[in-house]
Amino acid sequence: MFELPEYTNIAKQINETLKGKTIQSGSLGNSPHKFVWYNRGQNEFASLTQGKTIGKVKVKGRWLFIPLEPGYTLLIGECGGKILFHSVGSQLPKKYHLYLTFTDKTFLTATTQMWGAMELYEQGDELQREYIKDMRPTPSDPEFTFAYFNDLVDELVEQKKRSAKNLLTQEQLIPGLGNAIAQDILFKVDLHPRHPIAELDSDQRAGLYDAIIATVNEITDQGGRYDEFDLYGQKGSYVRIMDKNALKRPCPNCGGEIQKIQYLGGACYLCPNCQQ
Ligand SMILES: [Zn+2]
C-alpha cells in the first residue's frame, strides 16, 4: 500500500508530467470489483472527464487531489498498486481501474492492489468526503509541529489506553503513515510497538516526533520504498529496516535476532533487545 512518501512522489511526478494535458477520454477501467470505490458510472465518468485539463495536484495523507479543470477533482486514495504514466505507443496493462487518455496520445492508468478510491467530485465536494473532511494534520503539513504532536499525545492519553503502534497506524491519528513506515520509526526510537504512549517521557516524545519526520522525508527523498512503484514504473530505493526480509538479517544496532509478532492487524518486525 502506498503511504505518504509514495503519494508525495507520485503527486510531484504528475505535476511534472501530466499538468496541463487535456483528457481525450476517461474510463473507470476493465476490472471493477467491490473494493474499488467509485462514485460515478462509466458513462457519467466518461462524459464529465472528456476535454478537461489536468491541474496542479495536491497530496494529503494517502490521497491525491487531481484537479480536472474546469470544475472537477479526481480523488485517488487509500490504495496501493500502480498509478502509471504511459508514453505514446505503450501497451495498456491487462487490468486497470482507471484509464485516462490525453490528446497528445499519452495515457495514465491506475490499478489498485487491494482496495482504493477512484472518485470524481465537483470541485470542493471532495473535501466533504468521509476520512477527508476531518483529517488531522499529516507529517508533511506545516501544522504538524512538535507542539501539535505533543498536544495530540496528551489528548489521546486522556481518552483511552493506546500503544505506540496504535498512535502511528490506527484511526488516521497521523494520516499518511501505515504499518510499513511505523515499524522503521519505532525501531529508530527503540520503542516496542506495544509500548503505552501514556508512558512516553518528554525525550521519547521528542524522539518519536523527530523519527516520524525524518523517516517520511528519507523515504520520500529516496523515491519511495523499494517494493513500490512510482508514476514511471520505477521502484523506490528506500530499503525498509524492519520488514519480512529483516528476519534473515541481524539487528543493525545490536546484531541480535529480529522477531516477528502479530499485533494490531498485521505482522510487526522488531528487535526484542533494542525495542523493549
Ligand atoms: Zn537490536
Please give a structural write-up.
The protein has 276 residues and is of the alpha+beta class. It contains six helices and twelve strands. The chain has helices at 4-17, 42-49, 146-159, 164-169, 179-188, 202-221, and strands at residues 23-27, 36-37, 53-54, 58-60, 63-69, 72-77, 81-86, 98-102, 107-112, 116-122, 259-262, 267-270. Strands 2, 3, 4, 5, 6 and 10 form a six-stranded mixed β-sheet that branches. A four-stranded antiparallel β-sheet has the order 1-8-9-7. The protein has a two-stranded antiparallel sheet with strand order 11-12. The chain is globular and about 55 Å long. The two termini are 28 Å apart. The mean pLDDT is 95. The structure holds zinc ion.
Give a summary of the structure in a few sentences.
This protein has helices spanning 4-17, 42-49, 146-159, 164-169, 179-188, 202-221, and strands at residues 23-27, 36-37, 53-54, 58-60, 63-69, 72-77, 81-86, 98-102, 107-112, 116-122, 259-262, 267-270. It has 276 residues and is α+β, with helices and mostly antiparallel strands.
Structural class, please?
alpha+beta
Counted beta strands: 12
Number of helical segments?
A: 6
Average pLDDT for all residues: 95
Global geometry: globular
The oligomeric status of these chains comes to: single chain
Radius of gyration from the CA trace?
20 Å
Strand content: 15-25%
Distance, first to last CA: 28 Å
Cofactors and ligands: zinc ion
* Main sheet attributes: strand count, strand direction, barrel closure: 6 strands, mixed
